[in-house]
Amino acid sequence: MARIAVVAGDGIGPEVVGQARKVIDSVLPGVTATEYDLGAARYHRTGEVLPDSVLDELAGHDAILLGAVGDPTVPPGVLERGLLLKLRFAFDQYVNLRPSRLWPGVPGPLAAVKPGEVDLVVVREGTEGLYAGAGGSLHRGTPAEVATEESLNTRHGVERVIRDAFARARRRERRKVTLVHKTNVLTHAGSLWARAFEAVAAEHPDVATEYQHVDAAAMFLVTQPQRYDVVVTDNLFGDILTDIAAAVTGGIGLAASGCINPEGRYPSMFEPVHGSAPDIAGRGVADPVAAVLSAALLLDQLGHADAAARVTAAVATELAGRTPGAPLRTEEVGDRLAGYAVA
Amino acid sequence: MARIAVVAGDGIGPEVVGQARKVIDSVLPGVTATEYDLGAARYHRTGEVLPDSVLDELAGHDAILLGAVGDPTVPPGVLERGLLLKLRFAFDQYVNLRPSRLWPGVPGPLAAVKPGEVDLVVVREGTEGLYAGAGGSLHRGTPAEVATEESLNTRHGVERVIRDAFARARRRERRKVTLVHKTNVLTHAGSLWARAFEAVAAEHPDVATEYQHVDAAAMFLVTQPQRYDVVVTDNLFGDILTDIAAAVTGGIGLAASGCINPEGRYPSMFEPVHGSAPDIAGRGVADPVAAVLSAALLLDQLGHADAAARVTAAVATELAGRTPGAPLRTEEVGDRLAGYAVA
Ligand SMILES: CC(C)[C@H](C(=O)O)[C@@H](O)C(=O)O
Ligand SMILES: CC(C)[C@H](C(=O)O)[C@@H](O)C(=O)O
């Protein structure tokens, strides 16, 4: 039976992860969960972000379920680079998977888009690009200061994530992959991405393809999100585009994500896209749907497609029954979802 | 009297620029306009993108009015790097100014946002960042290929554009500047931007400030565009955010921009955000409003604030009178705008 590591984290993290675990237990009893105390609280208490010993222990699990880490009291970058990105890179989670659906019952912000019409997934590269941490500065704090950030891209890294996107497209109805980059300005990385995309596309004649510049894609995600099926893109572009996709489908309160190592050599990690939301933490009012949908991605990745489908169906039932604007209680939503999923 | 250079360019460029000139002539008779043939057509005919002699001639003008350059038949990057970006960099146009308003009469895509509620301006850095052209590749075309793109940021370049943003905020009602970056991942450049922002903010106690990560800003531009007044950001982030801002305010058909050298040492350049739209070129159906609003920015920059205000008011009248979805004729819109503006 699957052994998962749980990093509940900060703010609303523990509240929403609690519901995700409840739902997992209801559809797949017997999963072992080990809790790891990581995040802002631990950092403040011990100064530690992610000790090597913990990294080693995490590596021994089948998957990681993460709530949210971060707090305004921690300097920018410390937990992001030291924990989240460290895990993504150490565990070679090169597929950062972010599905977006406009669920029936959810009032999206776009007047012309009806529920059910948007169903896209962004396959964001997770281990390269501007996230590589290749940058520096000189003459810091003086008028002569210069700071650099370098985007590193390899054929190896780019091709494997594009392959994953095509494989996913093949399992979907529309079978379409959109490459998003900025080939007209980032000509070196853009050319690498475009050539790798063409090569993989040639092996998948049954999959339709298109290319868009990132600025155009950002616009079309607002004016015409229906047009997308699978979107494959670079790490930073994916970061931005998935927040737009979340916004047009009802907000990051519903957005799930998986940081996946498809070969299973390392554990994959599943987390809601939202942050720790310190403003509402501890009040039991956070929406656990994003965490629960992330748990569905986890189940799917571990080979429990049926259990995953039941969780997703439970979310659909829950959302269809909501009254827009009505207050919700985290625990109650979790109980309902667990009930729908087991039924 | 002002001497402007006109680069009508490709596709719908000449059609919309024709209307912009008509409107300029109506509010400020006597402006001298010299046409320069640059763009995809010239590139195909002569192989030239921007000869040095033309660059020198352009430098002798007070401003440049540009329609649109580009065509699918030209390889990515050739005109962008060789013409548009070359001009922005050669003429040190470090303020890339992109206002977005939801005009009364324009049906925006957001259900909850009413006309008049959105009035923001993005001050996008125009001469640094990932647009510097600092990148390369090794082992091209092999499985070992690596490609880099480097973002270059200087205190000099960052501070001056932030100063411009604060100066603009002071002239606006809400007096608020939002810095957008990704300080939690791009820690070197992000820190430089954040420190420069704090320093300039300290000199402007009458201006309210906030910071947002680019992914959050992309989301809030969709869910709550009303919250922004002046946004200052890096070159690439600005490229993406301004397309979102355009999308939520009725599309790039209405979006104007100025690439400004505030000191006037070099000519500033004004261009609609939209491209050459080869699909509708030559049919006289392109909306010239973005080009005409760009002309208003040009007039303002050259010190003709009254003329600029008349053009902007003419656009407001035009848009308020439109029936959503009704076809339009480029020439007729131009004639109406010229008429409203002169009256
Ligand atoms: C917190 C941050 C490092 C992270 C990212 O930029 O990837 C977040 O925005 C996300 O999208 O998961
Ligand atoms: C055409 C391209 C080089 C340009 C840019 O990226 O700046 C365009 O997208 C813009 O926003 O003006």
TL;DR of this structure?
2 copies of one chain form a homodimer. Helix content of chain A is about 40%, strand content about 20%.
CATH class of the largest domain in chain A: Alpha Beta
Distance between the termini of chain A: 21 Å
Largest interface: A-B, 65 and 65 residues
In total, the number of domains of chain A comes to 2
Helix segment tally of chain A:
11
Principal-axes geometry of chain A comes out as: globular
Q: Tell me the radius of gyration of chain A.
A: 20 Å
Q: What do the pLDDT scores of chain A average to?
A: 96
Say what oligomer this is.
homodimer
The CATH H-level homologous superfamily of the largest domain in chain A: Isopropylmalate Dehydrogenase
User: What fraction of residues of chain A sit in β-strands?
Assistant: 15-25%
